[in-house]
Amino acid sequence: MSTLPQTHPLLDGRTASSPLVRAYRGERGSTTPVWFMRQAGRSLPEYRSLREGVAMLDSCLDPAMASEITLQPVRRHGVDAAIFFSDIVIPLRLAGVDVEIVPGRGPVLGRPVRTAADVARLRELTLEPEALEPIRQGIAATVAELGSTPLIGFAGAPFTLAAYLVEGGPSKDHLGARAMMHADPDSWRDLMEWAADISAAFLRAQILAGASAGQLFDSWAGSLSPTDYGTSVQWASARALAAVADLGAPLVHFGVGTGEILAAMRDAGADVVGVDWRTTLEEASRRLGGDTPVQGNLDPALLSAPWPVLESAVLAVLKSGRAAPSHVFNLGHGVPPDTDPDVLTRIVALVHEAGGDSA
Ligand code: CP3
C-alpha cells in the first residue's frame, strides 16, 4: 500500500481519477490524456519574460518562479498534466556538484568525473534532505493551484546523469561514459550507484510533496547496446525506481532512441513506457507484450508542418496507441524552443476531440 500522506492529491480524491492517472494505471477512458515534454520553456513568451536575467538553475530553485513556470502551459494549452519545472541536474547542484546550464548548449560541469579518484571524490557528496526544501516548496505551491490536474515529478536516470558527469557537458555519443563502463567497471558501478541514489532522492521528494506520478528520463540510453544496457545500466535505474515504488504513484520510464530496450526499461520497474518517434506505438506495444501503457510519440519535427499534415500525424499516433491497454499522448521528445505555442494548444484540442475509448 501507498506510504503517501492522506492529504496527498493521489489519496484525497483530487487526482486518482484524473484521465492521466487512470491511463498511467492502464485504464482507457473517454478521452486520451495529453501533455508535452518540455511544455514549460522557451516556446512560451510568458516564460521568456519571467526568466529574463535569471539563470536557468536559479529559476528552478526559486519556488514561486518554478511554480509559476510549471503552471503556464497548463493555463495556456489545457494539457492533462503539469510537469514540475526543474532540471535533471538540479539534484547534482544540490549535492554540491559544480554544474551550470549554458543556454543553447545544456549542462556543463566545472570538473568532469573521469578517473577512479574523481568517482571516489564525487561519492563523498551527499544530497541532504534540507537541500531539497526549495523543491518541496515549489511542488506544494504548484499542487495548491492545480486542483484536479496531476503534477508529474521527474528525475534523470543514472546513465543520463553519468553521461553528463563523465563527459563534463553535452556530447553526441557519450563515448566517455560508455568507455568507463568497460575500462573501469568498479568505478562505473560506484558512479551509477551514487547517481541512482541522487536521482531517487530528487524523485521521492517531489512525489511526497504532492506529485501524482514520476517520470525517469533516460534521454541518452539509446546510445547503449541492449547488452550493455542490461548488464551495466538497467540495475541502477531499477534501484532508483525501487526507492520510490512504495509511494504507489505511477512511474514512467522514457528514453530517446530506446526502441531496442523498451521491455528492459519496463522491467526496471516502470508502470508506463515512454516511446520516441522512431518506433510506432503499435510496434512498441508488441515489444512490450501488449499489457503495458505507453506514452508518446509524435515527432517534434512535425510541429512546424502545415496543419493538415500535422493533424493526420496526430491521428495516426492516436490510432497506433490503441494497440496498448492505454495511451498518454505526448511528443517523442521535448518541444523545440521555436515552436508556435498555438500549435500545441490546437493539438490538445484535437486529441481531446478525437476521444479515447471510442476513437
Ligand atoms: O516542461 C518540462 O518538461 C519540465 C522541465 C524540464 C527541463 N529540463 C527544463 C529545462 C525537464 C523535464 C528537463 C529534463 C532534462 N534536462 C532532460 C531530460 C529530458 C530531455 O529533454 O531529454 C535533459 C537531458 C536535461 C538537460 C538539459 N537541460 C538540456 C539538454 C538543456 C537544453 C539546453 C538549451 O538551452 O537548449 C537544459 C536546459 C533546460 N531545462 C531548459 C529548460 C526549459 C532550457 C533553458 C532555458 O530556457 O534557458
UniProtKB/TrEMBL annotation:
Q: Does the keyword Lyase apply?
A: yes
Where, per UniProt, does this protein localize? Cytoplasm
Q: Which residues cross the membrane?
A: none
| Residues that, per the record, bind substrate | R38, Q39, A40, G41, R42, D87, Y164, S219, H333
Q: Key word RNA-binding present in the record?
A: no
Quaternary structure and interacting proteins, as annotated: Homodimer.
Per the record, the similarity remark reads:
Belongs to the uroporphyrinogen decarboxylase family.
Looking up NCBIfam families in the UniProt record yields: hemE
State what protein this is by name. Uroporphyrinogen decarboxylase
Organism listed in the record: Amnibacterium flavum
Q: What is the lineage of its organism?
A: Bacteria, Bacillati, Actinomycetota, Actinomycetes, Micrococcales
Q: What is the name of the gene encoding this protein?
A: hemE
